[in-house]
From TrEMBL:
The keyword Protein transport does not apply. Its cofactor is Mn(2+). Mn(2+) binds at residues 146, 148, 182, 209, 426. InterPro entries: Amidohydrolase, Bact_exopeptidase_dim_dom, Peptidase_M20, Peptidase_M20_dimer. The Mn(2+) ion enhances activity. Residues 228-328 form the Peptidase M20 dimerisation domain. One of its GO terms (molecular function) is N-acetyldiaminopimelate deacetylase activity. This is Amidohydrolase. GO terms for biological process: diaminopimelate biosynthetic process. Coiled coil: none annotated.
Length: 458
């Protein structure tokens, strides 16, 4: 995940702007008899000391993608104690907890569990000292630098609130602890392992993510429509004929050809993609040669490609392959030396927040937390595999992921008074105001579930 950008507070526009005439009926049905904010908040306040102890434990003991064995076991035990039917090992290390409570909608709440290969530098007394060796083969520190520890803790807080209030809601609650969000394959692995066949398929799917935002900690932002991007990783191997750097005419220089490809790739977004369609083609790595006076046989590039729609994604990926081949032809490369373009399979599809559902949550959250804490925010080009839960059945599942600012007061003051930039998500210095993120996330998840599953006659 990447840091989410500035979002606009509802206070800058009347809250009623989110309640369109066409959606009033839907609002009345989906959000009838909202649970008392004071009631939830009072219960949550009693739970917070234990939740913060859990947060510190999770923060100090992160695990990498698909290695969340201790984390998942620890949280599964808590879910069983709350009365959920718990299944472990879904999608390798995922946990699915189900609570059936009569006829009604099925609501899925999700939290991600994995940490990142980052050496923590926050200075927190409970900072991670964990070391591990990821797939790269390089031993490194491990850190919850993306805030998944706050997601899990808020998730447990919401589970406790909902388990205590079974007499206030009616339906089926499916709570998913997902592995490997950072690797982009955790949700896909759980779905492939029968998430929607072995367990109830949701009508609604909801998640939250902490954010390094220029808003006070505990502020909520939602992007109706596209919220996060398609994320593709592309490898290009540019072939050539190497030789002595003093006699370049005897070679076919792959570095010159690869450089031409890099420059031409920039025209995909500037000249082929509609100006109204966002897109990114970034060459993040360019490797070739090992000595000053030797022209290598090969150059290798690694690209990240970002888009929102499937059509834009196809245009960019097809264009990359076409440009690589076209530049090679222009350079006089024979067929056996054409570049090899490989699109990696760990594609993360764009995350789409159903607009009507997003507006319903905006109105509900504004009512619950106050207009000054809730607002819309622009979409970002980061990726999130929460998208997979809706994409598996887009005609029947409505989903929303929302952001909770975790920016501590001292960081916000330094930003506004000194222009000191905030550490981003994935930074070794990111230390959110965890208490506010957890409290806000837990109440928002539980409140939304209660309002989506009102008890009949309530």
């Amino acid at each position: 995940m990447t840091v989410f950008q500035v979002f606009h507070a509802v206070g800058e526009k009347p809250v009623k702007s989110y309640i369109r005439p066409t959606s009033l009926a839907a609002l009345a049905i989906a959000f009838a008899a909202p649970a008392s904010a004071q009631d939830l908040r009072a219960s949550l306040a009693e739970d917070m000391p234990d939740l913060m102890e859990l947060y510190r434990d999770l923060h100090a003991n992160p695990e990498l993608s698909f290695e969340e064995y201790k984390t998942s076991a620890k949280l599964a035990k808590r879910m069983r104690a709350l009365g959920f039917e718990v299944t472990e090992g879904v999608g390798k290390t995922g946990v699915v907890s189900v609570m059936r409570n009569g006829d009604g909608p099925t609501v899925l709440l999700r939290a991600d569990m994995d940490g990142l290969p980052v050496v923590e530098q926050t200075g927190l007394p409970f900072a991670s000292k964990v070391m591990a060796t990821p797939a790269s083969g390089v031993t490194t520190g491990v850190m919850h630098a993306c805030g998944h520890d706050t997601h899990m803790t808020g998730f447990i807080g919401a589970a406790q609130l909902l388990a205590e209030r079974k007499d206030e809601w009616q339906g089926t609650l499916v709570m998913v602890l997902q592995p490997a969000e950072e690797a982009g394959g955790g949700a896909r692995a759980m779905l492939a392992d029968g998430l929607y066949t072995r367990f109830p398929k949701p009508d609604y799917a909801i998640a939250f993510h902490d954010a390094a935002a220029d808003k006070p900690a505990g502020s909520i932002g939602i992007s109706p429509g596209y919220a996060l991007a398609n994320v593709d990783s592309v490898n290009i191997t540019v072939k050539g004929v190497g030789g002595h750097g003093a006699y370049p005419h005897t070679t076919k220089d792959p570095i010159v050809l690869a450089s031409a490809i890099v420059m031409r790739l920039q025209t995909l977004v500037s000249r082929e993609l509609s100006p109204l369609e966002p897109g990114v083609v970034t060459v993040g790595s360019f490797l070739a040669g090992a000595k000053h006076n030797i022209i290598s046989n090969e150059a290798r590039m690694q690209l990240t490609v970002r888009s929102y729609s499937d059509e834009s994604r196809k245009l960019l990926l097809d264009g990359i392959a076409r440009i690589a081949r076209g530049e090679a032809v222009a350079a006089g490369m024979p067929e056996n030396l054409m570049p090899v373009v490989e699109v990696q399979e760990d594609f993360t599809p764009s995350t789409y927040n159903d607009p009507d559902f997003a507006e319903q949550l905006l109105a509900s959250f504004a009512d619950r937390f106050g207009a000054d804490r809730v607002g819309t925010q622009p979409p970002v080009m980061g990726g999130e595999d929460f998208s997979e839960y809706r994409r598996a059945d887009p005609d029947n599942i409505k989903s929303v992921i929302f952001w909770v600012s975790g920016t501590p007061d001292h960081m916000l003051r330094a930003l506004k008074e000194e222009g000191k930039p905030l550490p981003s998500l994935h930074s070794p210095f990111w230390a959110p105001d965890a208490e506010k993120v957890v409290a806000t996330g837990a109440e928002a998840l539980a409140g939304a579930a209660l309002e989506l599953m009102p008890r009949s006659g309530g």
